[in-house]
Structures are given as C-alpha cells and as structure tokens.
Design goal:
The chain has 264 residues and is α/β, with parallel strands linked by helices. It is 27% helix and 27% strand. The strands form 3 sheets. Strands 11-10-9-12-8-1-6-7-13 form a 9-stranded mixed β-sheet, with helices on both faces. Strand 10 and strand 11 form a beta hairpin.
Amino acid sequence: MEIIVCLKQVVDPELPARDFAIDPATRRQVREGRPLVISTYDENALEVALQLKDRVGGKVTALTLGPQGVAGDAIRLALAMGADEAVAVDDPHGVGLLGVEKARVLTAAIRRIGRFDLVLCGCESADWVERVVGPLLAEALAAACVTFVSRIELRNGALLVRRMADEGFHQLEVRLPAVLSVTSDETNRPRLPKVKDIMTARRKPVQVWPMADLSGTSLDGDAPGVEVRDVALPERTARCEFLPGDAAAQVAALTQRLRDLKLL
C-alpha cells in the first residue's frame, strides 16, 4: 500500500502562555526561538500509516511544506518513527498559508510523488485549528474522503474505518484511493523512536522541492481563500475577594455572593 502522510510543523502547543506572541505585521504566531513540533493530530495520522504498513506492507512517504531548514526536524522525526521516504516542499511562506492555499501546494506535491492509495492528515491543525485541508485534498485528487477517523483496517481491498461522531462513532467502508483526516485514539498514540532510529534518520535522504517547481502552485494574482484581518490574544483578568467574619458568616456571605452572580 502506498501511503502519503501530510505533516505540519507548529510551535509546541505546550509552550507556556507567557512565551506566546503574535507578530502584528504578519498576524501570525511568532515562531522564532520557539520549539517546533509536528502538529498533534498529524502525529496520530503518521502512527496510523505506520501501523497499516506493519500489517499489510507497502511504503509510507512523509510530506511537509515550509522554509528549508525549518521543516527538516518534522521530516527527520517521521523517518525515525518509520517512514520510508520524505519530501519537503521548500516554501518560504509555507508557514503562513491557510487551508485553500496549503491544499493547493500539497495537491501538486502529491501528484508529483505519483501513485498513492491513501493520503492521511490530521483532523485539524494545532495552531489555526483548520479542518479543511483533508476534504480539499480529496476533492482535488478525486478521492474518497472521511474525516475524524480514529481506527483503520484493510479488508478485501477496501478500508474499514471508524469515524468519531457526536453520538458515538460510525463504521464505514471506504474504497481506495482515499483521503482520511485522523483524530486521536488509544490505538494510535505516536510511537517513540529508538535512539538508533533517530541516528539513522539523520543520514537518510530527504527530497527537497522548491515550490516554483510544482505546477499549479503559484498564488500570484489569486485572491486568498481566507483573509486574516486581525489576531489578538484574549485578555484574562482575575480578582480575589475576601469575605469577613467567622466561618458561618463567610459561608452565608459566599452563598449570597454566588446567587448574586447567578452561579447558584
């Protein structure tokens, strides 16, 4: 089975709030000096791909886009985890692209990679929380699409997938080729690569493709799919109120205060 996994590199979501900042010029999160990691659900998608390869064989190709030298860390981790090949689209503006633009670049890269049976990506990004890349890829590639997939099995040439839903889950049969967006599940927790695999991954070749070499990716003169007009950090305020008196008086005062705030 030929599997392509789309990976996005984001600022570590576990970054302390005091280190989070927005660039007022670009209206994007400041990345310089911050630790970068693979977007959370993309790691789950990679684990699903590796599990499928372990069961039925085939090849897993990791695909990412971003400035050369930055996207490399995500690719090397994917190789250390078990991906067979890696492709990085060298786009200096890649980290600023949103759904429609990003899907266009990824589509062109997937077509250049060639044959595929399955494309996997995270159900949403950890920074912009977009949920459109998977469906847009499926439409462009004329492939079946299922979102919020938690488990995948291959049976009689078709995929049996479990899709998370508000009321539980749906069990679906999907014919290949397909594009699936993956959510987290107890069965797809990302594996930890061994030290030997990390060292080996540093020596594996990574194909780097300039964005200009991909047909149909020029955004010049095109209206952006989404225009970001402003991004602001939410303001949080806290106030501490001391209640006088003994314990009984404090309980009565607290009860009344909660009623006044309509919390009781």
